[in-house]
Amino acid sequence: MTLLTYLRRKLGLTGTKLGCAEGGCGACTVMISKFHPHLKCIVHHAVNACLAPVCSLHHCAVITVDGIGTVASRLHPVQERIAKAHGSQCGFCTPGMVMSMYTLLRNNPEPSMVDIEEAFQGNLCRCTGYRPILEGYKTFAKVLDFGLWYCALEDPTVLNQMYDPSKFIPLDPTQEVIFPPELLNLGKQPPRQMKFKGERVLWIQPSTLTELLDLKSHYPESKLVVGNTEVGIEMKFKNLLYPVILAPAYISELNSVQHTKQGIVFGAACTLTLLGEVLRDAVAKLPTYQTEVFKAILEQLRWFAGKQIRNVAAIGGNIMTASPISDLNPVFMAAACKLTTMSKDERRVLKMDDNFFPGYRKTALKPEEILLSIEIPYTKKGQYFSAFKQSPRQEDDIAIVTCGMNVVFKEGSNIVEKILLSFGGMAPTTVIPKTTCKKLIGSAWNEKLLEDACASLAEEMVLPPSAPGGMVPYRRTLTLSLFFKFYLTVKHYLAVDLQHENVTVEDVKPDYSSATELFHKDSPSSVQLFQAVPPGQSSEDFVGRPIMHLSALKQATGEAVYCDDIPCYENELHLALITSTKAHAHILSIDTGEAMTVPGVVAFVFAKDIPGSNITGPAFYDESVLAEKMVTCVGHIVGAVVADTQAHAQRAAKVVKITYDELKPIISIQVSTCFTMTITSLSLSFYIIGEIHIGGQEHFYLETNCTVAVPKGEDGEMELFVSTQTASKTQALVAKALGVPANRIVCRVKRMGGGFGGKESRSIILSTVVAVAASKVKRPVRCMLDRDEDMLVTGGRHPFLGRYKVGYMTSGKIIALDVTFYANAGNSKDLSFSIVERALFHMENSYNIPHVCGTGYMCKTNLPSNTAFRGFGGPQGMMVAESWMSDVALACGIPSYEVRRMNLYNEGDLTPFNQRLEQFTIGKCWEECLDISNYMKRQGAVEEFNRQHRWTKRGLSIIPTKFGISFTSVFLNQAGALVHIYTDGSVLLTHGGTEMGQGLHTKMVQVASRALGIPCSKIFISETSTNTVANTSPTAASASSDLNGMAVYNACQTLLQRLEPYKVKNPKGSWEDWVNAAYFDRVNLSANGFYKTPDLGYNFDSNSGRAFNYFSYGVSCSEVEIDCLTGRQKTLHTTIVMDVGKSLNPAIDIGQVEGAFMQGLGLFTLEELHYSPQGSLLTRGPGMYKIPAFGDIPVELQVSLLRDSPNDKAIFSSKAVGEPPLFMAASVFYAIKDAITAARSESGLSGPFRLDSPATSERIRNACEDRFTKLCPPAEPGTYTPWAVRV
User: Fold this and answer.
1) Would you say 1020 is a known binding-site residue?
2) For residues 377 and 336, is the Cβ–Cβ distance under 8 A?
3) pTM for the whole thing?
């Protein structure tokens, strides 16, 4: 049992959250304190509770977010600051953030910004964009840096402070919870052996080395576990079972650190955190020439997992795991480290060389041996050592290619005496290119050696084109690029060092020097600008003020209740899904025999158990609740297991055997439909034909889908607690599956830990199954999907292929466009029709093109159905538009910002769907963005930088957006509200929208507060439920504040009219007086509100009508820097100007802008879903699928809400903000493309080129063609079966 399960299920401490179950998101972070018998002190470490076995915590104290402060009693400063700095939106990641920071402060009450940033390397957030979290916690830093400043703050109508740091509770380290004295005493006693026996696993913690060796001799196949960061994941996700586990974490010999004449010897159980601390101390004290290997290891540790993992992961575990992409093993191998192994009968010293890893995940150790220690050697004069790691994301990511490089020169010369290169990610094991190393011995360190080395590496470091992990040309190129970096680094050091010995060696050319620099990114700084409320606005009127999210404090203390936090019912059961392992097949049989033997199994649920209809679907009835005769994707839900615990249910589900008759699957867009393209009949003198592929995206809400179904026992009634954006559709489809009227089903939503569209329709596929199971067993049933299950079954953003022909004039003016969209819909229609429709509505983005033809296709494939995702097809449509805009600029040789500006719409122009643009503010946003970003000055600096640097390039781009606000399905543009006034004057507000972190409930309270003229403190929203407001539309399309706000306002106006006579009678009375007077006069103090957006409805046949109520506008400018040798990029600057009308709440709106931008940054630069040719999702968790992390924030981020731009079509002149800002991240993509253009020009390449989205390090490097890429050409398509296919 993990600590997380123990906390949540045994103790009922639900503040600590389950986000991924693999230590990759940090939501489960807690602080572990213990007396360290070898260091003789108490140590505090942040750890992942989802990986920590309870039996490993003997003599440890555990502090969770629940224990450091509560809203009712006393907040801890860490909790207060993240909440009041607006760093908590959905709040699901917040407890983990709090505990990471809390642990840092327990160890260091005055941290630096570097310390703070490092503390969060293992934490992810999908909502906030990270900036407000760092800003809030920056106030703990010993040196405060307020970053950017904006000269326009002399304008009293412009504000940039959303909270007052001077009012924060000060940190008092003397008031922290002390380490329990009894544990301190127990920790000082001699250790003793402990055994824990579970259902399937025996856990033994030996107390001495002798005991460990005896046990290993007795159980030679046992696994040694210190941090459980590898074995825990193998057992959960790879279905491996290790019946005996030995835990040697407390054995003194395995924890020792010894300094010898040759180097430093670390016990195999020493953690990576301790390794880093010892090596940093050695680097500070020893001569530089002795610590080359130490510095290389420290560089690798900078990017090794997160703090929580490094705190528990052991050096020995990293070696013995024998991962072919290990960060450290290539370094240890290149340094020729010595390993000491022991068994009961012998002690051996092994050199870590190319014989140590005989095969995939295998080592040279015998089954009965253990790894005792590793000796990391000192280096000597004339020896140079470097380590490199290239990964998709800089922080907390597994390597694509990693390496260690070691060279020794003959004394006083540049002649190679010895060289050792070691690579990970280039074979099933860590490998040494022995032929290349042998060739280079005796050579001078010059250009000839470089050419020989690269040619030899290109021949020796080959990978089959079908190699696991894919990216074969990129990986091969990296071996050359990284050696080139090493070559330049050593060349520079040689020039400096040999100069002292009067030996002249040519130094690195100045324009090459940046290739030798280690990756560095300055601490982020930011400015947020918004309009002040008008003079004279009442202090109790909070509309327009940056007030805190109403649940933020509860979220920071762990008291906010999410679906799975609801206490278990006494007779509750747990459900696990049985899913298809084939993408397209007939089901021949289902065997539950072995699953029945799993303890605790109560029932199985299959299609025959559905009492109502098995046909379902959110918009079209083209899906089944449970597959019956055929499966059409990997992850298709076939059935479910109901058991007494989640672990038993999941175990049983995994051993259900399904026999299939396989059919050929269709996975990719290219195969699913034949391409057609109609070219406009206009005569075009200049035109470009091109295409761009935009990859899909996983929602990665921190709270996975969850449902608790509670049958009521009579009349078919059932109560559902669901994490969903669409309570009414859940109600309707559950009722359909159960065969009862909708009035028997109540769906309740308190809050969600993120949604982003992923819980608009796909949450229902889980809710219906759970409801059917509860109906069958007549007991409450709960299911919260694990991250890998959620990613497998729910689908994501539609991958798009856009093909276009665009006609233009040499001035850059575009005159005609023909564009075709192909969207990978997956195995059902879901919401794909509306998504492709919206892509077409945004196909021209913000540009006035006289002649436009657009066509969209939904492509049916054997993938889980893709679905709504923030932007709903709009970002894909606009991304294609910016691709042809970029191509035209490159073809004309005109700066892209000029081409974009000359083609922008103006006030009163008509869109291709004949909607007139009114209150059009793009021009205003554009000019302000140019001004705030210092665009022209910045462009000159970028050009100068690129002239001075060959291997590092910068790029700059400015991108507009125009996003239509309304559901394109007209009937959805309605909302209801219900307002109760109680006799004490308090108000209970209910509306049709759901809270998922976007601050909807907070805004609705602000609306009601202004409408009723009472303080926000008198108004409360409990939840969203179908028995209070019926027939609600999904919380989607960015329209929820508009629709529900007007419905709330309507209800409040009704109540005010009823109260008006009593206000007239008693004008000096209080709110409570008027309410009581009305009550005693038998006036109804409850009111329904309703609103429907007027004058909506577009007709495709006649190309007439209003598709949208209005448009939201924005402009973004970004500057990036790319490493042309590795493809690594960082965003140096981003300015966003967003038109949100008159903001209801600037803090929430700016949070939405920044969060959407970072989500877009992931979409366009980082996040990749990989599918096998058989249709199986290969990226099923944070280990393989990377969303942006703290380190991906722009170094400078400026967000400005456009001022003096009221919108007369929405509540209190506001505008929608949820989806429109996401596309602002396209400025980063096109800045990257601009930088690549500069790199390509160095190789004599010019003109348009294709860059698909996302612009990953692989795509960036491959596009920067040079002599290294030419040595590693890709295999011919069709000659091999790829590891992953583009869908």
Assistant:
1) no
2) yes
3) 0.97
